[in-house]
UniProtKB/TrEMBL annotation:
GO terms for cellular component: membrane. It is a multi-pass membrane protein. The chain crosses the membrane at residues 7-27, 33-66, 73-92, 98-115, 127-147, 153-176, 183-205. It is found in: Membrane. This is YhhN-like protein. The keyword Transmembrane applies. InterPro entries: TMEM86B-like (IPR012506). The keyword Chloroplast does not apply. Keywords: Membrane, Transmembrane, Transmembrane helix. It comes from Sharpea porci. Pfam families: YhhN (PF07947).
Amino acid sequence: MHFPIYIIYLGLMVLMGLTHKSRYFIYTKTLCSIAFVAIACLTKGLGFLFGIALAFFALGDFLLVFKREKMKLGIIAFIIGNLVMIGIFSLYLKLTPYQFILPVVAMIILTILDEKEIVVLEQDRPYAFVYSFVLALAFSSTLVMAVTYNHPFFNVLALGYGLYFISDIFELAYVYVPASPKWIGAIVLTLYYIGMLFIALSVMFA
C-alpha cells in the first residue's frame, strides 16, 4: 500500500540532493518536508497529531534554508515540534528518571564544546541549548517506550528519532564548527529525511 509513497519520497530526496547548489533547493527541500507531513496525516489514528508535530519540523526545515538569517526561528519551530511529540508520548509513558539521562549528558557535552569554543553558537546559544535538551528528551522517550513495549510502533519511532538525533549531531558540526567540510551537509539531509520518513510511517503500527 505504501510502496509508491516510498518511491515518491526517495525520488524527492534524490531531487533535493541534485538541486542542493541551485536556487531550486528551497523548493525541493520544502517538497520533501511536506511529503513526510502528508504521509503522517494520511495515516489514521495518531496520524493527525503526528502531522501537527511534523508540520513544525517542516517549517523549521524551510527556515533553516536561510541559514543564520532565520536560524533562531527555525530552531524555535523544531522545539515546538518536539514538545508536541513529547505531549503525544505522554499518552503512553509517564516521565521517568531514565528519560532525563540523555538530555543531561547532551547539555553537559554542549556546554563543554561551547566553553572550549569548539562550536561557535553566538546569538543562537540559548535556543541551541533548549533545543538540545528537548530533542534529547524526545529521543530518550522513544527509546524508553521501545524497551518498555517492544512493539513495532515504538521500535520504528525510536529508529526514526535516532536517525533524526544523529543528523542533528552532524548539523551542529556543519553549522557551528568553523570551516567544517561541506560533505557533512549531505549526511545531515540523508539521515534527517530518512528519520522523518520512519517517524511518519511509525503511525501505521500504532
